[in-house]
Design a protein that fits this description.
Blueprint lengths: L1 H5 L11 H9 L16 H9 L11 H11 L7 H41 L2 H8 L7 E13 L2 H6 L3 H19 L5 E6 L2 E6 L9 H18 L12 E15 L5 E5 L1 H11 L6 E3 L1 H10 L11 E3 L2 E3 L1
Parallel strand pairs: 4-6
Antiparallel strand pairs: 1-3, 1-4, 2-3, 4-5, 7-8
Helix pairs in contact: 4-5, 5-6, 8-9
Amino acid sequence: MQEVILRDEPYCMYNYNPEELLEKLQNAPPLIRPSVLADAAPTEIIQIMKQCWQEQPDLRLSFSAIHGEIKKMNQGKKHNIVESMMKQLEDYSSHLAELVNERTAELGEEKKKTEQLLMRMLPPSVAKLLMANQKIVPESFDNCTIYFSDICGFTTIAHASTPMQVVDFLNDLYTCFDAIIENHDVYKVETIGDAYMVSSGIPKVIGDRHAEEAALMALDIMSATTTFRVRHLPEIHLRIRIGIHSGSAVAGVVGLTMPRYCLFGDTINTASRLETTGVPSRIHVSPDTKQLLEKSTKKFILQKRGVIELKVHTIF
């Protein structure tokens, strides 16, 4: 109102530069308030303006109170320039509040989407720690089962396909696998090319059920591949190799940009080698996994393959 009345900047009646003015405003008392001559505007307007400068916020007039006072002064007359200005200020304040609420809602929605994406990329327990800016400490798991699978003849399929067709093929296959693992107590660790890695017992500890959950999932995946067809090569009958091993492992988050939940230990290496030396369309399990399966249930049929040399390990 002081700017409107005097047609000048705030505190124009003082000969202060901006730094001096800010210093005096910050270090009150004494209070610094604009000074408007009595003949610069109607007395009532100046009184309302000064009342809005009260030090105690509860003594200041609200927009609606100011609007009412101006109406009284104008005896109900409309189209007064000050009244129009007050109405515009009131409308702007209301619109600004609506805009802030709208932007806050949009920000909340985007934050929710980001959290959901992070929950899909990392285990929920780890994702929550990251969102809380807490440090992720590596964990050691004494009992878990690791699953690896890859596609037999993938190089041949890739050679007969365009890069886009390879991407579409892997996306179709892994989407099928992802739907299957939703029905089991397992966690998809990652995909590397045509390799698919899953853990059971990590990060969620489920007792001795991890071997059974991984085995049931492997049977479902093997069954699904018998009916799966490559869209651009429908005549190909897809076959995969599967390796499963049980033991201990260490899990942790690696990296800050695009963080990855990684597993480390001989259990992971052994499961990978079991898959590499496996037979197409067969599930290759280690003696440790076999022992856990026979301990927990009798519903699995296992056939001894023979002695297989895996570097320093001998797997039956």
